[in-house]
Write a structure and sequence with these properties.
By secondary structure, the protein is an alpha+beta fold. It is built from 15 helices and 23 strands. Helix 8 runs parallel beside helix 12 (about 370-380) and helix 10 runs parallel beside helix 12. The longest helix has 13 residues, at about 230-245. It folds into two domains: about 1-20 and about 230-424, Enolpyruvate transferase domain (UDP-n-acetylglucosamine1-carboxyvinyl-transferase, Chain), CATH 3.65.10.10; about 20-225, UDP-n-acetylglucosamine1-carboxyvinyl-transferase, Chain, CATH 3.65.10. The chain binds ligand EPZ.
Length: about 425
C-alpha cells in the first residue's frame, strides 16, 4: 500500500505541464475498435485508467502499445465481442466499448460498469439509445449483452445530457444504416474530441459541442493519427493549488475556452488569472472570497472540479454554498476535509462551507479520484503534515502528480505504508 505525504505551507512557483485529457483519451481508445486499420493517439497520459482501458482492449483482441513518450498505437484486426469482467468492473468508462463493438461486430457483452462511487451511475440512457437503433439488449447476472444485425440510424432524445451516452451513441451511429440525430446531447469539450477523431477515421459527424449531433452512417472506417487535447480538469486542479497556497504559477498547455467557468469562479474568489496562448497564469491572494458554485453539464461549472473547490472555499472569508447537481453522492471528501479543519455542512446536494478555517495536516483517505485531488490541495495549504491513503484513486487520473507539484516547490512524496500485520 502507498500513501502521499505532504508538508504544507510551502509557496508554489514556476510552470507546470498539463497532460493529455483522461476523459477524452479513453473514448478515442474505444473508437479505435471500429476499424481494422492502425490508429495512433498522441499525448496519452500514463495513468491507471488508460492502463485499464488497454487491458480491456487487449482482452478482446486489439493490439495496443503505449510508448514512453505517450504515443499509443491500436490495431483491432480480430475482435471478441465479450469483454472480461475484471477490468470492466474496475472502471465506468468500460461501457464506452459497447457502442463500438455493436457497430463493428453487431454484438457485445460486458460486465455492468464499476467506477467511482459518486452515487447512482446507471447506463440506462446508453442502453435506451442502442435499443432505439435496433439492438436487442439484455441485462442479467451483472452483465449487459447487446445484439443487432446492423444498427439503424434514428432520432434519439437523451433525457439527460449524459457525456458517456452521447459519446457511445455517436460511435454506434457512425457505422449504422442511415442517419442519426442525438438531441439534448452533452456539450463537453471531450465530445468534440471524439467527433474529430471519428471524422479522421472517415466518419461523418457534425454538431459536437452543441445539444444536437448529426451522424451519417458509413460502411467502414479507416485509421487515424490524433493528438489528444490537454486535460482541463488537471489544469483546473493546479489553478486551485495556486490560489490555496497564495502562489503565482504558470500552467500549460491549456485551451482557454475549456477553462472559462473555472476561471470565472476563481476570479470571483479573488484570484488573478490571465490566459495567453496555451498558458494560464494564476496568482492567489492573501484573501479568498466566499462564492456560490453549482455544478452542471458543460458549459456549466464542471462537477469534476467540485471537490477541489470545496477544499478552496474552506479557506474563504465567509460562507460559501456549493450545489452538486450532477451526482447524488459526490460529497464523500467532506468528512476527510473536516478532519483537516474545514467546516462544511451537507444537506443532500447542497454543501454550506464556513470559513476561513485554518487547515491543519491529518491522516486522511481518498474515496475517489477528485476527492483525492481535493485532499492533496488541502494538504498543500495546511499547517503540518498530511498523509493521504487510497492513492490508487488519484493515480487513475493524474499523471506524475507528486513530481509535478515538487517541480513547483511543494514538499510532497509517496511512501509505502507497512500494514500492521506485517509488523507482528
Ligand atoms: C463522464 O462520466 C466523466 N468520466 C466523469 O468524470 C464526469 O464527472 C461526467 O462525465 C460528467 O461530466 C469520463 O468521461 C470517463 P454522465 P459519465 O453520463 O459519462 C446520470 C472524473 O472524475 N446518467 O454525464 O459517466 C449519471 O447517473 C469522472 O474524471 C444516467 O442517469 O457521466 C450521473 O448522475 C468522474 N443514465 C449523470 O448522468 C445514464 O445512462 C452524469 O453522468 C448515464 C448517466
Amino acid at each position: 500500500m502507498e500513501k502521499i505525504v505532504i508538508t504544507g505551507g510551502k509557496p508554489l512557483a514556476g510552470e507546470v505541464h498539463v497532460s493529455g485529457a483522461k476523459n477524452a483519451v479513453l473514448k478515442l481508445m474505444a473508437a479505435s475498435l471500429m476499424t481494422d486499420q492502425e490508429c495512433i493517439i498522441r499525448n496519452v497520459p500514463n495513468i491507471k485508467d488508460v492502463k485499464t482501458m488497454m487491458d480491456i482492449l487487449r482482452s478482446i483482441g486489439a493490439v495496443v502499445e503505449l510508448s514512453a513518450d505517450g504515443v499509443m498505437r491500436i490495431q483491432a484486426k480480430e475482435l471478441s465481442w465479450e469483454a472480461p469482467d475484471a477490468s470492466a468492473r474496475e472502471m465506468r468508462a468500460s461501457i464506452q466499448v459497447m457502442g463500438p463493438l455493436l457497430a463493428r461486430l453487431g454484438k457485445a457483452r460486458l460486465s455492468h460498469p464499476g467506477g467511482c462511487d459518486l452515487g447512482a451511475r446507471p447506463v440506462d440512457l446508453h442502453l435506451a439509445g442502442f435499443r432505439k437503433m435496433g439492438a436487442v439488449i439484455q441485462e442479467e447476472y451483472g452483465h449487459i449483452t447487446g445484439q443487432s444485425v446492423r444498427l439503424r440510424g434514428q432520432e434519439i432524445y437523451l433525457d439527460y445530457p449524459s457525456v458517456g451516452a452521447t459519446e457511445n451513441l455517436m460511435m454506434a451511429a457512425v457505422l449504422a444504416e442511415g442517419n442519426t440525430v442525438v438531441r439534448n446531447a452533452a456539450k463537453e469539450p471531450e465530445i468534440i474530441e471524439v467527433q474529430n477523431f471519428l471524422n479522421c477515421m472517415g466518419a461523418r459527424v457534425r454538431g459536437a459541442g452543441t445539444d444536437t449531433i448529426k451522424v451519417q452512417g458509413v460502411r467502414e472506417l479507416g485509421g487515424a493519427d490524433h493528438t489528444v487535447i490537454p486535460d482541463r480538469i488537471e489544469a483546473g486542479t493546479f489553478m486551485v493549488a495556486a490560489v490555496m497556497t497564495g502562489s503565482e504559477i504558470a500552467i500549460s498547455p491549456v485551451i482557454s475556452e475549456h477553462l472559462e467557468m473555472v476561471r470565472a469562479k476563481l476570479r470571483e474568489a479573488g484570484a488573478e488569472i490571465e490566459v495567453a496562448g496555451e498558458t494560464a497564469w494564476v496568482k492567489g491572494n492573501a484573501h479568498i472570497l466566499p462564492i456560490q458554485v453549482r455544478s452542471a453539464p458543460h458549459p456549466g461549472f464542471p462537477t469534476d472540479m467540485q471537490p477541489q473547490f470545496l477544499a478552496l472555499l474552506s479557506m474563504a472569508e465567509g460562507v460559501s454554498i456549493v450545489t452538486e447537481s450532477v451526482y447524488t453522492n459526490r460529497f464523500r471528501h467532506v468528512d476527510e476535509l473536516q478532519r483537516m479543519g474545514a467546516s462544511i455542512t451537507v444537506d443532500g446536494r447542497l454543501a454550506v462551507v464556513r470559513g476561513p478555517r485554518h487547515l491543519t495536516g491529518a491522516r486522511v483517505r481518498a474515496s475517489d479520484l477528485r476527492a483525492g485531488a481535493a485532499l492533496v490541495l488541502a494538504g498543500l495549504a495546511a499547517d503540518g503534515v498530511t498523509e493521504i491513503e487510497g492513492v490508487g484513486h488519484i493515480d487513475r487520473g493524474y499523471e506524475n502528480l507528486e513530481q509535478k507539484l515538487c517541480g513547483l516547490g511543494a514538499d510532497i512524496h509517496r511512501e509505502l505504508t507497512v500494514p500492521v500485520e506485517a509488523l507482528i
